[in-house]
Amino acid sequence: MAPRTTATPNVDCKSCPLRRLPAFRAFTDDELDFMVQFKRGEMKIAAGADILTANASSTHMFTLYSGWAFRYLLLPDGTRQIFNFLLPGDFIGLQSSVFDAMEHSVAALTEVSLCVFQRSELWTLYRQFPSLGFDVTWLTAHEEHLVDDNLATVGQRDARSRIAYLMLQLYRRQEHLELAKKYVCPWPLTQQHIADATGLSLVHTNRTMRWLMRQGLIEIDGERLSLHKPEQLMRMAMVDEDRLRLRPIL
Amino acid sequence: MAPRTTATPNVDCKSCPLRRLPAFRAFTDDELDFMVQFKRGEMKIAAGADILTANASSTHMFTLYSGWAFRYLLLPDGTRQIFNFLLPGDFIGLQSSVFDAMEHSVAALTEVSLCVFQRSELWTLYRQFPSLGFDVTWLTAHEEHLVDDNLATVGQRDARSRIAYLMLQLYRRQEHLELAKKYVCPWPLTQQHIADATGLSLVHTNRTMRWLMRQGLIEIDGERLSLHKPEQLMRMAMVDEDRLRLRPIL
DNA sequence: CGCGAAGTTGAAACAGGTCAATGCTTGTGG
DNA sequence: CCACAAGCATTGACCTGTTTCAACTTCGCG
Q1: In Å, what is the separation between the CA of B193 and the C1' of C1?
Q2: Helix (H) or strand (E) holding B186
Q3: pLDDT values of chain B reduced to their tens digit, one per residue, 250 residues
Q4: Minimal Cα–Cα distance from B228 to chain A, Å?
Q5: What's the alpha-carbon Rg for chain A, to the nearest Å?
Q6: Please, which residues bridge with residue A113 across strands?
Q7: CA B129 to CA B131: how far, in whole Å?
Q8: DSSP class per residue in chain A
Q9: Could you give the CA distance from residue B62 to residue B119 in angstroms, rounded to a whole number?
């Protein structure tokens, strides 16, 4: 599928179902009015395609509306580090707006739909709606926090722990968005994605996942992940209960 | 040395020598006026002491004025992951302002002096000076980028590469601040810091550093690091020339 | 002069990486 | 409808980078 931009939005921000989720803070009418005209359209990207490419400057920014994406970097030796996975409501491309260009790329993991914003309008947003400017900072700080967590995972945890951690984190985030419940969630990742996110080799990722399955801790069937013993997984992954936050969405 | 706050600033923002560096963007008079009254005082923290502690909410934010600090997390099993090192001009404690509390801690690596800001005033900053609000986002995005790099390093590089990378990065940042030149720079880190930042064991960190020294690639004497063959180090660390950016400072 | 923090080194164990082969789907074109 | 290719998952055998344990040194400092 080719990327496609629709000039006339199919979804009006004011009636956006994503925005209505209890996970997201309510906007004022003025803020919503601004968002409506800030939004430039919508766009679909096929699974596997890049949304933004490292070192290329883009004139657009996006909010992920549906599907999964991931931020990553290709190193000179050909290995790929995935920094984190993006779920609906996540903002994409801020770095390319704040600096000239980004140092990393963003790719669609599944087919993805995006709300499109004009980079040149970002400054207007800061000027006219300080509250939205603050939201942009919030989202950036939040994403940094996710990367921090991933760094702690890759730096300090062993293979079992890393994979358990990743699964718990992605389950939690989906649960928060009401995309999952009862420790069962969509799971579009290949083992290669998991390997690249956790810094493990593909082979060892496979072995470790098989081990987790044999222990009856997890189960994967098709694109569906079940966490069978969440408490035990959490102990293994050394995660504490982490508070869910009310968050902004653009 | 006990933490100490001086009510009357010794350094007026308007004549701040740090701010004058070519690395930092020039502020307008209005912005400077605002900063003067935004700043609440100064503070010194002894080497080794925490500046901010995980899960504790602080009413303050800081700009690092002199010395080194680092952001870190203690995992339940006692290991420590250092997310990144902070140098003069870096902003500290945004996460604790944007969320309720931070998930990580920040410690002084050397003795440190800080400019102190009131968290409750942050909102005023966004409202009255969109340009400064944008700067806060800039700094947050920039820090995220640093963590991204560190994650790619820990996830994909081997021991030699990780340590070479860390040294090059810290040299570059110091050079940018005119704290170093000719591939020689201050180096207050212990091997334990390096180990915790790179996700290596202390012993292996030591062996790897010795190896780098025996190869004549680096030299450490006291608190001074020399990079003897920067091109070779860069190849080993797989770093490309990275552009230096004009950055804001608060 | 002695103590603690930081650095150094050897030896042994092991977690995880690499290489290589195999199987299982799924889609596609003849 | 079958054959074949391509992507993904799986497994064995072997190898090595890194960890662990333990000892010993060096240095700064009270």
Answers
A1: 31
A2: strand B184-186
A3: 444 555 455 678 999 999 999 999 999 999 999 999 999 999 999 999 999 999 888 899 999 999 999 999 999 999 999 999 999 999 999 998 888 888 999 999 999 999 999 999 999 999 999 999 999 999 999 999 999 999 999 999 999 999 999 999 999 999 999 999 999 999 999 999 999 999 999 999 999 999 999 999 999 998 999 999 999 999 999 998 777 789 999 9
A4: 23
A5: 18
A6: A44, A66
A7: 5
A8: ---EEESS-SS-GGG-TTTTSTTBPPPPHHHHHHHHHHEEEEEEE-TT-EEE-TT---SEEEEEEES-EEEEEE-TTS-EEEEEEE-TT-EE-HHHHHSSS-SSEEEESS-EEEEEEEGGGHHHHHHH-HHHHHHHHHHHHHHHHHHHHHHHHHHH--HHHHHHHHHHHHHHHHHHTTS-BTTEEE----HHHHHHHHT--HHHHHHHHHHHHHTTSEEEETTEEEES-HHHHHHHHT--------B---
A9: 9
* Cα–Cα distance measured from residue A200 to residue A206, given in angstroms and rounded to the nearest whole number: 10
Assess whether B201 (CB) lies less than 7 A from strand C: no
User: What is the SS3 assignment for B210?
Assistant: helix
Give me B158's structure tokens.
């081997």
Could you tell me where the DSSP H helices lie in chain B? Answer: 29-38, 94-98, 122-128, 130-156, 159-176, 191-198, 202-214, 230-237
Compute the nearest-CA separation of A13 from chain B (Å).
Answer: 24
- Specify the pTM: 0.95
In the block, tokens 């569906």 appear at: A224
Interface contact flag, A152 B94, Cβ < 8 Å: no
Residue whose pair of structure tokens reads 């947003």 in the numeric block: A125
Distance CA(B177)–CA(A15), nearest Å, equals 49
Residue type, B122: L
User: A201 CA to C18 C1', in Å?
Assistant: 9
Looking at residue B187, the DSSP 8-state letter turns out to be -
Whether the CA torsion A151, A153, A158, A159 is positive or negative: it is: negative
Which residues, in sequence order, are CB contacts of B145 under 8 Å at separation 6+?
A: A95, A99, A103
Say if CB B101 and CB B55 are below 8 A apart.
yes
How big is the A-B interface in CB pairs under 8 Å? 138
